[in-house]
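Practice problem 4.
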């Protein structure tokens, strides 16, 4: 598949987006570089806000019944920076999805913005799994993403995002093995790294420990903070 995007600082911007602007040739090379860098940051923040919408909806659903019964729900929504209609639109979309809580939780953990209208055809075509274990939910989300992908704008591979997903998956299994003890878990981790190197054809090398960026870690309060049962939104 031909790549139609350019990648700057691991963030995606449409190919030739800036070059097609009438003002572009009026800028010096230094100014163009500055504009490109800022544009990358803006794209990244916009995508981040979209991925967080589902998480916002889950949290709002926890207090909606209470605040509606007090007659202050709309006033409550208006305390946020965004317009109340945006929150209503997000909540309405979440209600239409009618997805099991584990699927919603999995989507939030993976940053899949199921509220985005581009996912509607995939969600209508692919029913959620009857068994809601972690593997079944992950497979379901993979299917949704694969179904939806051809309908989205083509994007260049994002190594940083892929690393976050892989890191979280490994840490999830690492945490689940806590009962094995420190020595056995360390052996497990080393064997995993070795097998990955073998599968990827990487040569033997010295690997130093590296600090984990804070963005790799899920927000505090999840998954324990997520509701396990659907909350009424009436």
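Answer key:
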């Amino acid at each position: 598949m031909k790549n139609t995007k350019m990648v700057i600082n691991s963030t995606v911007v449409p190919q030739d987006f800036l070059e097609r602007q009438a003002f572009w040739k009026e800028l010096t090379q230094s100014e163009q570089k500055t504009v490109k860098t800022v544009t990358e940051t803006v794209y990244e923040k916009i995508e981040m806000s979209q991925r967080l919408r589902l998480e916002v909806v889950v949290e709002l659903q926890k207090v909606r019944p209470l605040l509606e019964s007090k007659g202050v729900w709309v006033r409550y929504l208006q305390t946020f920076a965004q317009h109340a209609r945006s929150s209503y639109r997000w909540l309405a979309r979440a209600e239409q999805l009618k997805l099991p809580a584990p699927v919603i939780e999995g989507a939030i953990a993976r940053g899949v913005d199921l509220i985005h209208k581009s996912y509607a055809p995939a969600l209508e075509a692919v029913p959620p799994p009857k068994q809601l274990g972690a593997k079944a939910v992950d497979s379901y989300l993979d299917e949704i993403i694969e179904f939806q992908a051809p309908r989205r704008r083509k994007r260049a591979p994002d190594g940083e995002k892929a690393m976050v997903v892989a890191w979280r998956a490994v840490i999830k299994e690492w945490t689940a093995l806590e009962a094995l003890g420190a020595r056995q878990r360390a052996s497990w981790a080393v064997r995993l790294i070795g097998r990955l190197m073998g599968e990827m054809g990487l040569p033997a090398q010295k690997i130093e420990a590296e600090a984990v960026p804070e963005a790799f870690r899920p927000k505090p309060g999840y998954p324990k903070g997520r509701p396990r049962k659907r909350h009424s939104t009436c």
